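ugh ok fine here u go
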Amino acid sequence: MDGKEFLSEKEKNPKFKDIPVVVITADENPDEQLKALSFGISDYIVKPFVPEIAIRRVQNVMESTISRKLIRDYAEDATSNEKTGIVV
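structure:
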């Protein structure tokens, strides 16, 4: 299975939909990068890379993912509380 097939399969399963994916590849082609980003990857790192920069980019993706989850959870709680009349 290549990366595109993996992303397609990942999107089919709701349990895995929110898992971030960072692609590390030697392919510098901007068209391929745009295509990969359109498949829903979180970041695209081209080899060769500086390890410290790659680590920071992965950390940024993880922090962003956590932030989105917190915002989504808060919105769901607020919606649920509106339906039940509970004010937070």
